[in-house]
Each structure stands twice: as structure tokens, then as C-alpha cells.
Design brief:
CATH class: Mainly Alpha
Number of domains: 1
Number of strands: 2
CATH topology: Helicase, Ruva Protein, domain 3
Largest sheet: 2 strands, antiparallel
CATH architecture: Orthogonal Bundle
Shape: globular
CATH superfamily: uncharacterized protein sp1917 domain
Radius of gyration: 13 Å
Strand content: under 5%
Helix content: 55-70%
Structural class: mainly alpha
């Protein structure tokens, strides 16, 4: 599935620090914890709590965020629709990675079991 270049550019320029509070609010409102959110982010990106806080403090864009991340080798197992896009069909790598994150946060907020969220083959 093709996203527009405007959409892809917006994704690249968004700062992680501006979106993180929304992720946190979303999961906490549904009874999940900050620690669970960090576990999901750590699984996807390899960032521990200290490294994650550095990304927030540095006000990095999603482009920089995912350049610094070590994407989990099982990230390709994240499938489904998020924000109207089928994740596995998104052609722009950065946009796909941002949507991976969105999907994991959604699954956490919806009460999915952590073993299912943290995919393994």
C-alpha cells in the first residue's frame, strides 16, 4: 500500500517526544502501565529506559528515533490495519516502523496479552 509523500514526510518530522505522552495516556487509560509500554517499546527498538529517555530529552524525530533503534528481527510479524493502512503493505520503511509502534501500543491498550504483543516466530 502506498502512502503519500506528504504523509511520509509528516511521519519523519514528528518528534517522538510529542507522541510519547499520547501513547502513555492511551495505555494508562485502559489499565496498562508505563512499564508495560516501555517493555513494548524496548522489544521493538532495543531502547532500555535510559536510552528511551534520552530520545525524549533530545527531542528526536521519528526518523532519528528509528535510525538509532535496533529494530527487533520479528517486527515483520506485526500485521493488521492501523490508521487505515495495512501495515505489511506499507512501502516506505520509516512509515512502516512508526505504524509498527502504533499497532503495538494499540494492542497493549486493548488488553492483548504481552506474549502475543511481543511476537516470536
Amino acid at each position: 500500500m502506498s502512502t503519500t509523500s506528504d504523509h511520509d514526510n509528516r511521519m519523519a518530522k514528528l518528534t517522538f517526544a510529542s507522541v510519547y505522552p499520547h501513547y502513555l495516556t492511551k495505555v494508562e487509560r485502559k489499565g496498562r502501565s508505563r512499564e508495560e509500554l516501555h517493555q513494548v517499546i524496548r522489544w521493538l527498538t532495543g531502547f532500555d529506559d535510559k536510552a528511551l529517555q534520552k530520545q525524549i530529552d533530545d527531542n528526536v524525530t521519528f526518523k532519528q528515533f528509528f535510525q538509532r533503534a535496533k529494530l527487533n528481527p520479528n517486527a515483520h510479524l506485526i500485521t493488521g490495519v492501523i490508521c487505515g493502512y495495512r501495515i505489511e503493505e506499507i512501502e516506505t520503511p520509516l512509515t512502516q516502523k512508526v505504524r509498527y509502534m502504533d499497532k503495538l501500543v494499540d494492542e497493549l491498550a486493548k488488553g492483548r496479552k504481552m506474549e502475543k504483543i511481543l511476537r516470536s516466530e
